[in-house]
């Protein structure tokens, strides 16, 4: 059978898209005259952890909201687990989840009630069993029947993680998952996320200001500034390019407009 060489690049691109947990191409978002996201493109390979870095106003949260289908792009294309967003949102939302310490659960409901509500939204089978499993894994059992508004910051974070894992997602979108936590609790959360990724083959997009966390967890790092991508590579390659020993030093260079050593 003859092979149409003209279709080979397109076929290769389709295979790459199918292999990616997230594919973002030429994505933009404009609010009136403010360009929050400006023509960005990147991919998150399946089974990987990709860090999304940038200062306040860099466009990270808007990007995540568009990936989840909560905000409509002004231009560009998004595919999540092989599905176009937001038009195929219904086909993919049950396979992903989101966690942020800045999004509170209803404070008057108990932990068990909150997890039950979210579990029903995801149509989780054997929901009572899944809640019991998460309670054991995340050390929630002693306060399952306590009102969510009466939990400590660390307890709330563990409950938020339980909510994010309730449907055994293939893709996790995390926005500052360890913000405001003490080092021990933050380390515990990171370890659990790493364990979940390895056990389930899950993919993670992690937005964080904690550079040590990013160095520890991420295979790749996408650095944003003013809605654009400044760099996209492995943490070690980016640090080498800027001739810096830590990602925090790189972050400061980008934020303050210092050129990479290789370009200066």
Automatic annotation (TrEMBL):
InterPro entries listed in its UniProt record: AAA+_ATPase, ABC_transporter-like_ATP-bd, ABC_transporter-like_CS, ABC_transporter_ATP-binding, P-loop_NTPase
Q: The ABC transporter domain covers which part of the protein?
A: 22-251
SMART domains in UniProt: AAA
Known PROSITE patterns for this protein?
Answer: ABC_TRANSPORTER_1 (PS00211), ABC_TRANSPORTER_2 (PS50893)
**Keywords assigned:** ATP-binding, Nodulation, Nucleotide-binding, Transport
Q: Name one GO molecular function term.
A: ATP binding
UniProt lists the family membership as follows:
Belongs to the ABC transporter superfamily.
The record, for PANTHER family, names: ABC TRANSPORTER ATP-BINDING PROTEIN (PTHR42711), ABC TRANSPORTER ATP-BINDING PROTEIN NATA (PTHR42711:SF5)
What's this chain's function?
Involved in beta-(1-->2)glucan export. Transmembrane domains (TMD) form a pore in the inner membrane and the ATP-binding domain (NBD) is responsible for energy generation.
- What is the name of this protein? ABC-2 type transport system ATP-binding protein
Q: What is the lineage of its organism?
A: Bacteria, Pseudomonadati, Pseudomonadota, Alphaproteobacteria, Hyphomicrobiales
């Amino acid at each position: 059978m003859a092979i149409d060489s003209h279709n080979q690049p397109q076929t290769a691109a389709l295979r790459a898209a199918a292999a990616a947990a997230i594919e973002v191409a030429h994505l933009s978002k404009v609010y009136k005259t403010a360009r929050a996201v400006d023509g960005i493109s990147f991919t998150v390979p399946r089974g990987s952890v990709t860090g999304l870095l940038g200062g306040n106003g860099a466009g990270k949260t808007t990007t995540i909201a568009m990936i989840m289908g909560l905000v409509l792009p002004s231009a560009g294309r998004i595919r999540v687990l092989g599905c176009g967003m937001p038009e195929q949102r219904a086909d993919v939302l049950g396979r992903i989840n989101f966690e942020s310490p800045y999004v509170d659960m209803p404070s008057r409901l108990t932990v068990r009630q909150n997890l039950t509500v979210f579990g029903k939204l995801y149509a989780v089978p054997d929901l009572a069993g899944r809640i019991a499993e998460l309670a054991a894994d995340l050390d929630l059992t002693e306060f399952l029947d306590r009102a969510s508004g009466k939990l400590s910051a660390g307890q709330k974070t563990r409950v938020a993680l339980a909510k994010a894992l309730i449907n055994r997602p293939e893709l996790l979108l995390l926005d500052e998952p360890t913000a405001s936590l003490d080092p021990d609790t933050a380390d515990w959360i990171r370890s659990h996320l790493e364990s979940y990724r390895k056990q389930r083959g899950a993919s993670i997009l992690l937005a964080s200001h904690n550079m040590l966390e990013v160095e520890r967890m991420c295979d790749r790092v996408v650095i944003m500034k003013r809605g654009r991508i400044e760099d996209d590579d492995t943490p070690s390659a980016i640090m080498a390019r800027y001739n810096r020993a830590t990602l925090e030093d790189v972050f400061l260079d980008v934020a303050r407009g210092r050129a990479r050593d290789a370009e200066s």
